[in-house]
Structures are given as structure tokens and as C-alpha cells.
Amino acid sequence: MLTVDYDRLDLRPGMTVLDLGCGEGRHAFEAYRRGARVVAVDWGQHEVATTKRWLGAIAEAGEAPAGARYEVVRGDLLHLPFPDASVDRVMASEVLEHIPDDATAMTEIARVLKPGGRVAVTVPRFGPERICWALSDAYHANEGGHIRIYRADVLRARLSTAGLVPGASHHAHALHAPYWWLKCAVGVDEDSAAVRAYHRLLVWDLTERPWLTRTVERVLDPLIGKSFVVYADKPAEVAVAAAGLDRERSAAAR
């Protein structure tokens, strides 16, 4: 289940892409299959091990182009272990809502991106997420849980403050919003026939991709899509300005 639109991210073979807060690797897998040099990053040891194992399986199955590469590292999004201006693309999917100091995380994303690079940020959408919070404290109030609900304008403003330029956006996973409302209503840790039945529907949709549910979700995404996705660029002018400053310093030194 992909939240990021790789065409809007403009991900091309040979690019270096970071998947931050990769979880168990769903976005890293697709980037690798598309020929990118993928670096998947997560703080969880289990997540790192699982992602590494599945990327290895994709490689063994020959599902990635010859030039594709992958690496999986355990890392802190507040202190990314990468040089300045070293990556072409960044994906940060459903992770910023977990981080208390999200401003520093966004600044780190801007730091490691090359001028002209692009990031895709996805977070739970305000409306569907607010309903989940109202129905269940257990949904979000736990260790490592969601600590904030973003409004679209607030997320865009914070990305701008970090030095990025927010652009296109969209919503995703409308069929998942009612599932989580139902799960929160009956208890996130409780089992029920209704939750199991809805889960089977989502699995069927994911594996079979039938035209009916795909069409329904496309229609409903703008209304109740559970995820909000925004793409932001690091201005190319940064490189020009930096080069000009270096020339001025060199002239002054002479």
C-alpha cells in the first residue's frame, strides 16, 4: 500500500532516495524496483531488520534493475547520518506526527537534500484523524504514538520555515478511514466480526485491485482520504547563492 505518488515525486532510476521512518519498507521496496539507490532509515531495530530482509529478497528475485542499490540503517531523524546536499529525493511517510521536535526533523530533511531535490511528506489528514482521537485514546496516546494532528496549512508553513517550497498535494486511502473509525469505536485492541470483515475487504482490495473499489477510493480521497501528502522542493537557487558567496570569500582572501 503506497501513499507517495512516485510520478509526483519525480523519482528516476539512479537517484539517491532516503525513506525516513521506513517502517517495514513499503515505500523503499517500490523505489528500489524503480531503479533508485535507496537508503531506508528507521530507529526501530525490528523495522530495520525486516526491511533489510525484504529488500534482499527483492534483489534475489531479480525484481530490481541492475543499477538499483539499497542500504538499511538505524538512524535518528533529528540527526541524520548523511552529508549536506547528498540525496536527490526524500520520503517521510506517516512519521512526523510521531516526532516531538518535528521542526528539527524538517530542517534535517532540507539539509540533506540537494538543491533542486524534492521530498514527499505524508501525515494523517486532520478530519479523519480527529475522529479517531475522539473515539479512542488508545489509538494515539501510547509510547511512540501520534502526538499531533496536522492541518494542511500548518504542515506547509513548517516545511517553508525549514527552507523548503511546498507544492502539489493530494489525499490517499479513503477506504482506510472508516476502518480505523470502526476499530477505534469498538476498541483498538479488541477483536470484532465487523473489524475482521472490513480488514478482509482491505486485503482483497490491496491484492486484487478491483476497478470498483479503486474507483470508489479515487472519488472519496478528496473527501475522507486518511492521509495528506505534500511534495516540497529545495530551491535550486541555494546552490547559486552558495557558489556566489564562496567566490566572494575567495576574492576577499586574495
Automatic annotation (TrEMBL):
One biological process term in Gene Ontology: methylation
Domain Methyltransferase type per the UniProt entry, residue ranges: 18-120
Keyword annotations from UniProtKB, A to Z: Methyltransferase, Transferase
Keyword flag Acetylation: no
Domain of life: Bacteria
GO molecular-function terms, A-Z: methyltransferase activity
Pfam families reported in the protein's UniProt record: Methyltransf_11
Protein name: Class I SAM-dependent methyltransferase
Source organism per UniProt: Blastococcus carthaginiensis
